[in-house]
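User: Predict structure, ligand pyridoxal-5'-phosphate.
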Amino acid sequence: MNNQYRNLLFLLFIYLFTMNVENLVRKNILALKPYSCARDEFQGEASVYLDANENPMNAPYNRYPDPLQWKLKEKIAKLKSVNPSQIMLGNGSDEPIDLVIRIFCEPLVDNIVAIDPTYGMYKVCADVNNVEYRKVLLNDDYSLDATRVMNTVDKHTKIIFLCSPNNPTGNLLNRNEMKHIIQNFDGIVVIDEAYVDFSPEQSWLVEINTYQNIIVLQTFSKAWGLASVRCGMAFASEKIISFFNKVKYPYNINILTQQFVEEQLENTDRKEEWVTMLLGQRTYLVEQLNKLPLIQTIYQTDANFVLVKVEDANAIYRYLVDLGIIVRNRNTVALCLGCLRITIGTQQENDTLLQALKAYTY
Ligand SMILES: *Cc1c(COP(=O)(O)O)cnc(C)c1O
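Assistant: Predicted complex:
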């Protein structure tokens, strides 16, 4: 191989493997001049604030909150061992899910690829944004086939959604299959880790400096017990986060939420205790469900819920509703025929469910 040829190959290698996020971003978003709010134009301490048309009365709620939530991000950054500038906070994970589509996908041109079955919000957000949504069936055992995903990708695919542990199936996706996708796809891979606290595997967070094309989603809604507070987290390269910040509503996290989540973050021990309790209850519930003849299959779970196959999902679902016990009927979801998704509750809640299922007659 002569030198010139080698250099050319090297340049080709560089071209193929250095990802330029800007090339993936929609042209209008690249060109966007974001709204500059009063809190952007003056930062710091002053004695007289007459810049934002706020009411001087009713402190502290009269003042607009920090649009980038730095105090809260500092605390999250410490906990997660990332840089505060690698964090975006949203109104639940649902906000970054919507924003990532709006940042990268041109309506009626680009498309999204996601596993099937998975979390329903990806498709809803794609539909709202008029972006094609391509489903790739998981294997029958709910494992991920990276080759099948890559075969569905075309030059207009901008985002691949991978949910691990997956909802509604409960299992972790194979790390090497995920890595194959991340390394071979020239677009953004969103890894939804809403249930990561309940899983034995390490978070993908440790990889955000290695892979410039991943966005890791986590939430306060599950392990932290804060679903009503609506606070979700996206972790990615500073570059990607800067586009989130450009497109999001300026004051998307209100001051009550910022302060309350900050306080809750002091209680990591309590969160760990809840997780331990729920994992114990998960083992218990699975053991007990295993003894019931009406349960046909209990799927492997790495989350705070378990998917089970029963003989007549619709009938059992209605029977439980009549007793005031609500589970999720997943009977009509791909690969989930006959399946109910059961969230792990307290010992008492789980026992109430078990007693009801024991008493079920066909
Ligand atoms: C529950 C859940 C979320 C959390 O959504 P929030 O908007 O943060 O409450 C995200 N992804 C998946 C897959 C979920 O099941």
